[in-house]
Amino acid sequence: MKLAYFVHDLSDPAVARRLRMLKAGGAQPVVLGFCRAETAPETLEGCVTVNLGRTYDARLGHRAKLTALTALRARRFKTLIADAEVVMARQLEMLAIADAARLLCGLRSRLVYEALDIHRMMVQDTVKGLAMRSVEKALLRRADLLIVSSPAFVESYFKPIQGLGDDVHTPLMLVENKVLELAAGPPPAPPPPAGPPWRVGWMGAIRCRRSLDILTALATRRPDLVEVRIHGRPAHVEFDDFDAQIAAAPNVAFHGPYTAADLPRLYGDVHFCWAIDFMEEGLNSSWLLPNRLYESGRYGCIPVALRDVQTGRYLEQHGFGVRLAKAEDLETFLEGLTSQRYAELRAELAGQPRDAFVADEAACRHLVEGLRKPDGGLGSYGQGSESASRKIAA
Questions:
Q1: Domain match, 311 and 364 both
Q2: Tell me, what CATH number does 227's domain have?
């Protein structure tokens, strides 16, 4: 199946992971997208890429202008995507371009909307917020399938705010942010010795100022109790001075970006994974199921989440992890933590089925098959989360 994939950032590692899934499932993707890095890759996972231009974090006006210009000129993609069976768009700005390309190039392709974050502007009752919701709702009506990574996106946003299931009838598919393994992966590494200082790892997209404040303050106040190790790509626009704050905090270290091959080592080097995010508190941060939830589970590291957000509800439903009433309770939790209780937490995690955290080749085939089906294949696809799929389908 030839597939045209419009993406918001060619340099995003999650885009590369999705391409691996699509290829393993039998699709032949062509990738068109913006790029937030200085240099865009010429190929991605063996796929041809078309760089649509440079974009930047937190510059919504610039992205909106570039999106409109690219959509108006979408006819130029005709030769490249002429025989695409599916046109798939990652995030709203790319859905506008993908729909324009399908229309201007005269394609009869299925249109798939992959909505993996809900920006805070989308729920604001401002002129911009209302306009963006109107655009999204109109495009949703034209889409053949909506892909979400968390059931809460549907229950908290698409149903009550965009009328999904009421006056919008786009079929749904749940595709969680699981670790992709197309062959047998390595076993989890043994954890550090149980006991203080307890090591807390914060991996992935580092964008939450409040999380950094909480972790650096705790490590500064209690170096005997906690060490913090941060790995990933910080969104510097979200912090006053990320590097200076790290440098000023004892027992806090930032180790920079990493690759998927590094994950077993990184998670094996810490006791706990920080799976808390306040960047869009009460909105997207409360609804998402982050990559680090599945990565920490796969590699034997105990996730720490807030009790009353979707990540915490996931942990409660599955019976593992640490659920805090508020993030500042981490200090009290670690003060009372014994080696015996830590061993019990490890055992709860080890008792989870592999497919709770891992997407394999069969899951990739289900994904690609679902892109073809009128209902998204909800009857057969869920990557180990059939109950969540049924909930969305209802």
A1: no
A2: 3.40.50.2000
Tens digits of pLDDT across the chain (394 residues): 999 999 999 988 899 999 999 999 999 999 999 898 888 888 899 998 988 988 877 677 788 878 888 888 888 999 999 999 999 999 999 999 999 999 999 999 999 999 988 988 899 999 999 999 999 999 999 999 999 999 999 999 999 999 999 999 999 999 999 999 998 878 888 889 999 999 999 999 899 999 999 999 999 999 999 999 999 989 888 999 999 999 999 899 999 999 888 999 999 999 999 999 998 888 999 999 999 999 999 999 999 999 999 999 999 999 999 999 999 999 999 999 999 999 999 999 999 999 999 999 999 999 999 998 766 555 332 333 343 343 343 3
- The answer to whether the CB of 42 falls within 8 A of the CB of 66 is no
234: in domain:
yes
121 part of a folded domain: yes
* Secondary element (H or E) of residue 242: helix 242-247
Tokens read off for 339 = 């080696």
Q: Which residue has the tokens 């869009």?
A: 280
Instruction: Answer yes or no: do 160 and 250 share one domain.
Output: no
In a domain, 266, yes or no: yes
pTM of the predicted structure, to 2 decimals: 0.89
Report if residue 239 sits inside a domain: yes
User: Number of structural domains, the chain?
Assistant: 2
Q: How many CA atoms lie within 13 A of 244 on its CB side?
A: 3
Residue 197: asked if its preceding bond is cis (omega within 30°), the reply is yes
Q: Please check whether residues 10 and 143 belong to one and the same domain.
A: yes
